[in-house]
Structure formats: C-alpha cells, structure tokens
C-alpha cells in the first residue's frame, strides 16, 4: 500500500469516527465522557412514531416543526433506541444542566438547595398544617390514603392529603367544587409550590378582597399539593436522576427505574405495557397504585357522575358542575381531553373555550392533548370521561427544576390568575366559560349614605380568550346584572338586570344602584354580564360600605387590575350609556338638590 493510499485510508477512518462521535455525543471529547443521564434529540417520522416514542420513553419536549423530540435517557434507554435503529444527538447544555451539582445558596436555610422559592416536601406538609391551624373556619385537611411506601411500612412514606378551602361556617349555602392537584411527577417542582401559593393567596385575602371572599363562600377548592410524595423525596435526595414515577419496588426491582407513572395509571384509556423499567410504565393494572386509588376515591366522593359510560356520551352542559386541573411542568400548554385518542371529546367545543380562557391569563398555548402526543390513563381523561367534570392539564414553565426568578415573576402570578378563573366558573363551567367577564369594577363614591345611589364603573368584556390559531369568536355585550350581598343564583338575591344591547364585544360604562334598604356596614356588590349569544359570565365582586348616616368621605375604590397576556380589543366608552339614564338620573338630581 502506497503512502498516499494509506494517508487517504487514515483520513477516511478519522472522518467516520468524527461522524459517529457527532451523532452519538455531539463532539464530546474522549477524556470528558458524558454522564449517565443524558438528554437526547431524536427525529420521528410521523405522529404514529411520535406516539410510540412517547408511550415508551421519557419524552420531555416535542418540536413539530423539526419533527424531533427530546428524551431523558440512561444507558438502558440508549441501548433500546439503538437496537431499534434510532440515531440521536445529545443536547449538551441541557445534559449539563440536569447533571450540575446543586448547593444551597449563601445563607439559605429553607427550601430546596439552590432553589429557595420551592419548599421541600416536608415544608409543604408543614405549611398545610399551619394553614389548617391558622384558618380553621376556612381550611380542612383531609387524609385520603397512603403513598406506596407507607402501605409497605406505616413508619415510612406519607399520607395523601387534600387541603380543602371554603367557608366551613355556612353548610347550608350551596357550594361548587374545584379540584387542583400537583406533583404527580416527582421532578416537577413548580406545580406544588404554585398550588400552595394559591391556597395562601386565597386565605390571606379572604377578608379584604370581595372577589376572593365569594370564591370561598360559594365554592370548595380541593388542593392535593403532592400527589406523588415518595417520588418527590427521591427527587429531592438525588436531583440529577429527575425522578418521575412513584417508588413501587414491585416494578423494575430496587433501581432508579422502578415504579409506575401515576399519570398513566388511571382507568380511562389505560393501556398495559410490559416493560416495567420504562419511565411511562403504566402499572400492573388500571388504578393499581395506592396514590391513584386515593385520588379516584376522593374525586368520586366530591363530584356527581354527570357522564354516561360511552366515550361519546355528551355531558349536559346546562347543569354540569365542577372543575379539575392537573398542574404539571413543563411546555407552557393548556391541554384538554381526549389524550388517549385522536378523536374529539363530545364536549370538545366547550372544553376548547375553557382552555382558551385559561390560556389568555397564563399566556400558554391551548391544545387538545393529542396535539402534543397521545397519553393513555391520564388524570384529566379519567375525570372528564368517568365523571363529566371538565379536566385540564397545565404544563407550566420551561424545565422541571425551573429557576426561582421565572417562577416568581411568570409562572406563579400568571397561572394564579388562570386558576382563579377556573374557580369562578366551577359552578357551571360549560356555560360560564362562554360568557363575558366584568373587569375594572370600581366605585365613584364609597362609603355611601343610607339610601344613596352607588355609582359603579365597569367593563363587560367578551374578548378575554387566547388568540392562538382561530381564537374564540366574541359576541356583543347584551346586558349586565347586579345584586347586593348574594350572587344572582342564590335565593333572595333580588338581582336586577340592565339591558344594554350594544354592538361591541367590550363595553365600558357607568350605572347607579340604589342602596335603599341596606343596613349600615360593609356590603358586597356582584356584577355579571350577558353576551349576544345568551351566555352569562361569572360575577366580579367589590366591597362597599353604607355609613351610619354621618357625611361620608368620598373615596375611589378600584378592584384588582389584571395584567393580561393578550392584547385587548378597542372599547366603546360612553360617559353615561343611554340605557342607564333612568337609573342614573335620581343620583344626578339628588346631588344637584
């Protein structure tokens, strides 16, 4: 062999080696080997191959534009992918991030090391106990079962707990139910903290914010802060494993791949897969895991069965009640059923509208679940398919261990607004989601003298939906309705309707309401609006005071102003709408005289 030929052969061999290195390790040097846990970028051919990958591997991101997925992997995963003929590149920045050593910040004494905004599991349970002790009239802490570890050893594991918020002193007042759960995948740190912060916000503002007060007076809010406590403990102890499943030792032995994926274990659309070490292993049978059984039994005790047994059975939207949201991370999505099939759910139109409503406030992308990829045995499919309760999945943030700055400035405030809307429509979710909201509610004079008219500023808005793709059609504002001290659906509210008949979907105006008959002291004004399609929206409330007869000092009392993520449409703002002259005139005359 000549020197020239030998040189060419060597160059060819080097090229092959370099190409192989690029394919499998993205230019990682031999003396700097990749860690066991790697993030792979894998190409998929079509939606069927995507569904297969998502069913068997830990797919954490999907990019439909490039038809690639990111998969969390260990050597077992990589061997299986290679055997099937897949090639991949390694996302080095992401791989380095999930393997980075995490240490407490300087002076940090609470929270997860390096992430002080996230309470540890023990601190989450302690906070729930503290809320129950501090607000006994508004909080009930219920033990609904045991985690898998506790079923094996009563001195290990955790109780499955529900934090129930609502006015406990008014058992005769009809209440609706909203159920939010978090932490079903152990490595997802933002959702449990988001859920706990929601509880703290509602309780801390109950006495001072009329909108919060009515939510807890006329609803029960059920919060499962940690749906997978055993897995969360494993993730906190060894962060770079990024634990997903529960810790059931009957599956995949005593390894870091043991356990069942609790969000594949629910009976609706459940599918058996034989490989126990898969990150999406669905358990030995539908509902096999104690954590799953605890949630199902509790939900069955809370919600009426509002849906027939056939998947195509329609929920009666006029009367159905309740709301369910499973908080996950990540991908910034609001997902609605079905997830187990590409078919649309029988109530798809209203589920879509609800998703677009939530997405307006948290800025996420609303999608039917299968637009991401199919998921069998999920919580939201079971809740809707079994009970007819509208079920959703919020995928918050951009990573499992989200930075505290993103959590504090984005995830928590924006998703909190979406969750508050979910509680607002829980009484009749399929109908109220279609109706306009009342915003910018404020009073021109507060307090008022006995019998004096209350002058109210408001905006009725039917445009507060995500504009993703085709968005949600808006209707013109038809009417508003107001009542004192009780919302309109409660007996004795004596609600009054003001016809507007506008031609615009967002309408700002003023009305005057007589306070004759109201006793001195604090009262609540409820205002709702109706659109041209005949759909009423949920109420917005504000406190006001009727004085004891002495001259009041006028004050301007605004309600909380939201910062929406969508661009509002232009509004038509008359000084006094013609339809309000009759109501407004007595106030003008009383002040002139």
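^ Assign residues to that structure.
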């Amino acid at each position: 062999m000549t020197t020239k030929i030998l040189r060419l052969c060597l160059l060819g061999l080097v090229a092959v080696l370099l190409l192989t290195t690029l394919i499998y390790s993205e230019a990682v040097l031999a003396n700097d080997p990749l860690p066991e846990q790697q993030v792979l970028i894998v190409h998929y051919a079509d939606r069927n191959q995507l569904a297969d990958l998502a069913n068997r591997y830990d797919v954490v991101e999907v990019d439909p534009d490039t038809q690639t997925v990111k998969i969390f992997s260990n050597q077992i995963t990589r061997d299986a992918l290679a055997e099937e003929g897949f090639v991949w590149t390694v996302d080095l920045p992401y791989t380095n991030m999930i393997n980075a050593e995490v240490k407490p910040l300087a002076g940090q004494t609470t929270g997860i090391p390096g992430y002080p905004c996230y309470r540890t599991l023990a601190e989450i349970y302690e906070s729930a106990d503290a809320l129950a002790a501090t607000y006994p009239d508004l909080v009930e802490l219920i033990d609904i079962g045991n985690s898998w570890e506790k079923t094996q050893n009563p001195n290990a594991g955790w109780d499955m707990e529900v934090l129930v918020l609502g006015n406990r002193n008014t058992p005769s007042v009809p209440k609706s139910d909203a159920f939010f759960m978090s932490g079903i995948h152990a490595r997802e740190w933002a959702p449990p903290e988001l859920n706990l912060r929601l509880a703290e916000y509602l309780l801390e503002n109950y006495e001072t914010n009329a909108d919060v007060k009515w939510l807890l007076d006329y609803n029960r809010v059920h919060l499962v802060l940690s749906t997978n406590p055993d897995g969360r403990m494993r993730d906190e102890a060894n962060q770079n494993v990024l634990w997903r499943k529960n810790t059931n030792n009957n599956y995949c032995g005593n390894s870091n791949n043991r356990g069942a994926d609790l969000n594949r274990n629910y009976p609706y659309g459940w599918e058996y897969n034989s490989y126990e070490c898969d990150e999406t292993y669905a358990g030995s049978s539908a509902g096999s895991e104690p954590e799953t059984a605890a949630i199902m039994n509790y939900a069955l005790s809370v919600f009426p069965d509002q849906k027939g047994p056939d998947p195509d059975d329609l929920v009666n939207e006029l009367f159905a009640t309740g709301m369910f949201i499973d908080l996950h991370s990540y991908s910034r999505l609001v997902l609605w059923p079905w997830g187990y099939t590409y078919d649309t759910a029988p109530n798809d139109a209203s589920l879509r509208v609800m998703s677009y409503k939530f997405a307006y406030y948290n800025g996420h992308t609303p999608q039917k679940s299968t637009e991401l990829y199919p998921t069998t045995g999920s919580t939201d499919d079971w809740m809707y398919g079994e009970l007819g309760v509208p079920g959703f999945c919020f995928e918050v943030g951009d990573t499992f261990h989200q930075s505290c700055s993103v959590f504090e400035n984005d995830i928590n405030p924006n998703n909190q607004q979406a969750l508050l809307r979910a509680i607002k429509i829980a009484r009749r979710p399929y109908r109220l989601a279609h109706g306009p909201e009342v915003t910018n509610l404020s009073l021109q004079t507060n307090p008022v003298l006995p019998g004096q008219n209350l002058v109210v500023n408001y905006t009725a808005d039917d445009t507060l939906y995500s504009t993703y793709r085709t968005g949600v059609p808006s209707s013109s504002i038809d009417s508003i309705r107001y009542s004192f001290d009780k919302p309109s659906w409660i007996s004795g509210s004596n609600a009054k309707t003001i016809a507007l008949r506008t031609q615009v979907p967002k309408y700002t105006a003023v009305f005057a309401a007589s306070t004759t008959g109201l006793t001195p002291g604090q009262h609540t004004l409820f205002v709702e609006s109706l659109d041209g399609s005949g759909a009423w929206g949920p109420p917005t409330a504000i406190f006001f005071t009727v004085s004891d007869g002495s001259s009041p000092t006028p004050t301007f009392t605004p309600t909380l102003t939201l910062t929406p993520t969508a661009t509002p449409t232009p509004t038509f703002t008359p000084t006094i709408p013609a339809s309000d002259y009759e109501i407004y005139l007595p106030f003008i005359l009383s002040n002139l005289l």
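The chain is about 30% helix and 20% strand.
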